[in-house]
Amino acid sequence: MRYAAITDRLYDLGGDKWAIHNTARDKIAAGENIIELTIGEPDITTDPALVETCVAALRAGRTRYSNGRGETGLVAALVDTYRPRMPDICDQNVLCFPGTQTALYAVCAALTQTGDGVLIGDPYYATYEGVVSATGAHVEPVPLRMEHGFVLQAEDLAAAITPQSRVVLLNTPHNPTGAVLDRDTLVAIGDLCIEHDLWIVCDEVYEALIFEGDFVSPLEIPALRARTVVVSSISKSHAATGFRSGWSIGPKEFSRRLLPISETMLFGNQPFIADMTEAALRGDFPTAAHLREALGRRAGLVHEMAQQITGLSSRMPAGGMFAMLDVSGTGMDGDAFAWHLLQTQGVAVMPGSAFGAGGRDLIRVALTVPDEELRTAMTRIAHVCRDAQERCAGVA
Ligand SMILES: Cc1ncc(COP(=O)(O)O)c(C=O)c1O
Question: What is the pTM of this model?
């Protein structure tokens, strides 16, 4: 049978990246004691009051078709949420989606097509390559360097821009590196986008999870607003990943053109989830503060322990749910290290290569387990490093 080219473009994206995670899950199912530090699921539950709001909405019959933009109450709540950053925002700047991921997919479909380039800091979130490739566009990687705390540097971006470049896809706070973009960096990146007429798509899903510095959105920089689209959700801020509730905020004409794409994909959103999301945005819930405190403490724990381990280098992440460790000092790349760690120590981490070629020498450690478990995992990581040093010494 014949298939459309999109299925070829996405064929090899996905499965292989998660091989260690899947192997770890198989081992757990077989009764092995594995510390799983592979994915970024908040380790607390959705606030019971939000769950109740959703259930109450279901019981109240909020189960019918919605419109394509999103329920009026939720759109109004998003307008109020973003007004401090975008004073002239109105409902026409807003579209609701089932999660940041869907919003990204639709936004990329609206901005890119075959032959276009999307500039992305490398390493990058595992689904970005698929989202870009689906449209026929390609990733133009921009190196993120540990010596700069993995913060995207304007000069690296300038060097990567080609005549095909159409979009710069930013993610702050950043998965997998934990880097946060400050205002000066955003201004410098924005100047290049203005000079080369590039869109800025900014994935702000980890906005609430910053432990060092302040969050700044490109929407706050007036000169960038006409070319900026923000995507985000309540997945991380409210530990509500399974609710699939996100949005895009962009210029009116952009949003007008995005709406039919959304409508043909989704035919509207789910009113009972919209009600719960509106309550999440308007209410005062402790979830984000709790996560921020726990993740910041664990990031510090991993960074401090990593600094004591010969063969590892690390940078304190400024936000997000992960720490990246450079394992090249052990003589192994991230893949070899991660497999060895799983097979010999029962600790599952993601190899950095799952996040682009720039992650080759890195492993990503999820900070989403209790401190003691993380400490044990770091002790086991230290064992692998020590064994590697001893092997090297033996060879020498
Ligand atoms: C950088 C980044 N963007 C988007 C997503 C997906 O978010 P959502 O649950 O809102 O679709 C994730 C999930 O881990 C992520 O890490």
Answer: 0.96
